[in-house]
């Protein structure tokens, strides 16, 4: 059963999405990492506002898992920086859990299959299985 998000959760999701994206882009610029594009595609905060799932799209995708692992290892520092930045907006910043958003890759595979004339609805085995997070 999927519960509807409250307006407060939606507002916090939007604020976190914007602020985490800003922090990550700033860290990339300061770290002089070339050819890396990270975007925060969505954020979901739990109903008790203690945990937030942050979904990221990382380009180039070949190195995305290593960048994700680095972000996961440094999530406490990111949370601390976020808390300093948002001290007047949120009393407590939720714990940050980072995940890769592979929806664009999945859409690309479906588009490729359709262009090749393979209907993934008729032959569902042609698509790789995705794990819901």
State Rg. 17 Å
Corresponding CATH architecture of the largest domain? 2-Layer Sandwich
What is the share of helical residues? 40-55%
Q: Approximately what portion of the residues adopt beta-strand conformation?
A: 15-25%
Low-confidence stretches: none
Largest sheet: 3 strands, mixed
| String of helices and strands | HEEHHEH
Give the strand order, joined by hyphens, for the main sheet: 1-2-3
CATH topology name of the largest domain: GMP Synthetase, Chain A, domain 3
Brief digest:
The chain is α+β, with helices and mostly antiparallel strands and 133 residues long. It has helices at residues 7-30, 64-73, 75-85, 103-115, and strands at residues 37-45, 51-59, 95-100.
What are the key terms here?
alpha+beta, globular, GMP Synthetase, Chain A, domain 3, 2 domains, 133 residues, 3-stranded mixed beta sheet
Commentary on this structure:
This protein is about 45% helix and about 20% strand. It has four helices and three strands, in the order H-E-E-H-H-E-H. It has a three-stranded mixed β-sheet with strand order 1-2-3. The longest helix is centred in the N-terminal third of the chain and has 24 residues, at about 5-30. The mean pLDDT is about 85.
């Amino acid at each position: 059963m999927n519960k509807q998000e409250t307006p407060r959760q939606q507002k916090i999701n939007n604020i976190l999405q914007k602020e985490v994206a800003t922090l990550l882009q700033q860290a990339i610029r300061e770290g002089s990492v070339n050819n890396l594009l990270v975007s925060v595609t969505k954020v979901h905060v739990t109903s008790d506002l203690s945990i937030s799932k942050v979904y990221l799209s990382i380009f180039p995708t070949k190195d995305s898992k290593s960048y994700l692992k680095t972000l996961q290892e440094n999530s406490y520092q990111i949370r601390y920086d976020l808390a300093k930045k948002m001290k007047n907006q949120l009393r407590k910043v939720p714990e940050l859990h980072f995940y890769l958003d592979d929806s664009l890759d999945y859409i690309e595979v479906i588009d490729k299959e359709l262009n090749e004339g393979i209907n993934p609805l008729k032959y569902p085995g042609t698509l790789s299985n995705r794990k819901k997070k």
